């Protein structure tokens, strides 16, 4: 791949220093003064690149790799050619994530769009009744509404609309084209381009004549600290209660979170998930891509839901579910195996008749 000017190499970190920062161990102390500047997949790594491996499937790619260093578990260290330094870690994936943030800090948040990345752009509109702490950056064409409050170190990207009385904490990034209304946002929150936060939820009552009557939505969206929300994700405000996204939760692109949903701390929700209104999701829940979650149900702490599942009822804490309708993973896998056997038997029967 050609040189990436979007995320240029770091000026360099010694492997000895990197090992200390990661809580890793250099397999050979003589490699302590080698320097890494970039992260790369094993297959195309060059001098100065840091890579990681998690399984023996990488053996063939390692043989031709020109990486400076590899992060891996001690059980895989023997696979690494002698010319490549080895950083030993019990959690190499986690260590690599930390190293990547050190080598490419600018890639950890949506980037600055304009050359002037300080202060309030003259091409932005900030209502006189809004209150911005020192160090807030507002890029061109952004609109900050009446009574909005934004904390120190937060950056508002181009074309962002912050509604009246919205509160945003410190060191947040609200990227291009996002809109926030009726929302309270904590510290260190990242909201990616095009996200829609705080619009009214989907609620209607049967009309006296054919048709539906809109139900008023007067709740809020509360986003706690260290949350990340992906591009074009929508989070509706509550009807009369609040929609809540718990601390440390990460939400992928194009996710729909309905009104009154409460998501716990440190959850992971992958692209294409739809969560219907008034669902309660516990802490540490992982939901695979394109899954649909029924409304007014409870998903317990630590639950894992496979991709493309349809969850129609409560799930107890710690369970692993999959399928449509979602059921315990052992039942889902058994059903899949039985269907495969039946399909194979039908094909064999059909083949014998053809003969």
From TrEMBL:
A GO term, aspect molecular function: UDP-3-O-[(3R)-3-hydroxyacyl]-glucosamine N-acyltransferase activity
Function as written in the Swiss-Prot or TrEMBL entry: Catalyzes the N-acylation of UDP-3-O-acylglucosamine using 3-hydroxyacyl-ACP as the acyl donor. Is involved in the biosynthesis of lipid A, a phosphorylated glycolipid that anchors the lipopolysaccharide to the outer membrane of the cell.
Annotated PANTHER family: UDP-3-O-ACYLGLUCOSAMINE N-ACYLTRANSFERASE, UDP-3-O-ACYLGLUCOSAMINE N-ACYLTRANSFERASE 1, MITOCHONDRIAL-RELATED
UniProt cross-references to InterPro entries, sorted A to Z: Hexapep, Hexapep_transf_CS, LpxD, Trimer_LpxA-like_sf, UDP_GlcNAc_AcTrfase_non-rep
GO biological process assignments: lipid A biosynthetic process
Active-site positions on this chain: 259 (proton acceptor)
Keywords, ordered alphabetically: Acyltransferase, Lipid A biosynthesis, Lipid biosynthesis, Lipid metabolism, Repeat, Transferase
Catalytic activity as recorded in UniProt: a UDP-3-O-[(3R)-3-hydroxyacyl]-alpha-D-glucosamine + a (3R)-hydroxyacyl-[ACP] = a UDP-2-N,3-O-bis[(3R)-3-hydroxyacyl]-alpha-D-glucosamine + holo-[ACP] + H(+)
Gene Ontology CC annotations of this record: membrane
Name of the protein described by the UniProt record: UDP-3-O-acylglucosamine N-acyltransferase
Protein family membership: Belongs to the transferase hexapeptide repeat family. LpxD subfamily.
Documented EC number(s): 2.3.1.191
Boundaries of every UDP-3-O-[3-hydroxymyristoyl] glucosamine N-acyltransferase non-repeat region domain copy: 33-99
Pathway where this protein functions: Bacterial outer membrane biogenesis; LPS lipid A biosynthesis
SUPFAM superfamilies membership: Trimeric LpxA-like enzymes (SSF51161)
Lineage top rank: taxon: Bacteria
Matching CDD domains: LbH_LpxD
Subunit description: Homotrimer.
Gene3D superfamilies listed in its UniProt record: Hexapeptide repeat proteins, MurE/MurF, N-terminal domain
Pfam families: Hexapep (PF00132), LpxD (PF04613)
């Amino acid at each position: 791949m050609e040189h990436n000017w979007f995320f240029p190499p770091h000026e360099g970190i010694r492997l000895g220093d990197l090992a200390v920062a990661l809580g890793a161990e250099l397999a050979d102390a003589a490699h302590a003064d080698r320097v890494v500047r970039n992260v790369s997949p094993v297959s195309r790594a060059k001098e100065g690149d840091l890579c990681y491996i998690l399984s023996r499937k990488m053996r063939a790619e390692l043989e031709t790799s020109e990486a400076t260093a590899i992060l891996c578990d001690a059980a895989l260290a023997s696979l690494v050619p002698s010319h490549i330094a080895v950083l030993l870690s019990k959690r190499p994936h986690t260590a690599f994530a930390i190293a990547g943030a050190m080598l490419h800090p600018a890639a950890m948040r949506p980037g600055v769009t304009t050359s002037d990345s300080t202060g309030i752009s003259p091409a932005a509109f900030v209502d006189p009744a809004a209150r911005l702490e020192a160090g807030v950056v507002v890029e061109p064409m952004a609109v900050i509404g009446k009574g909005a409050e934004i904390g120190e170190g937060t950056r508002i990207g181009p074309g962002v609309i912050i509604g009246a009385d919205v509160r945003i904490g410190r060191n947040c990034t609200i990227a291009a084209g996002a809109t926030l209304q009726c929302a309270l946002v904590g510290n260190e929150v990242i909201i990616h381009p095009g996200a829609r936060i705080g619009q009214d939820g989907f609620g209607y009552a049967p009309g006296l004549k054919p048709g539906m009557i809109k139900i008023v939505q007067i709740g809020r969206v509360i986003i706690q600290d260290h949350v990340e929300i992906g591009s074009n994700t929508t989070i509706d405000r509550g009807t009369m209660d609040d929609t809540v996204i718990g601390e440390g939760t990460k939400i992928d692109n194009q996710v729909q979170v309905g009104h009154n949903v409460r998501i716990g701390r440190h959850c992971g929700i992958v692209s294409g998930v739809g969560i219907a209104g008034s669902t309660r999701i516990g802490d540490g829940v992982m939901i695979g891509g394109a899954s649909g979650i029924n409304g007014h149900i409870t998903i317990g702490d630590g639950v894992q839901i496979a991709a493309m599942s349809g969850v129609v009822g409560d799930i107890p804490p710690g369970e692993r579910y999959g399928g449509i309708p979602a059921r315990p993973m052992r039942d889902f896998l058994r059903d899949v195996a039985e269907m495969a056997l039946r399909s194979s038997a039908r094909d064999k029967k059909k083949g014998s008749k053809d003969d």
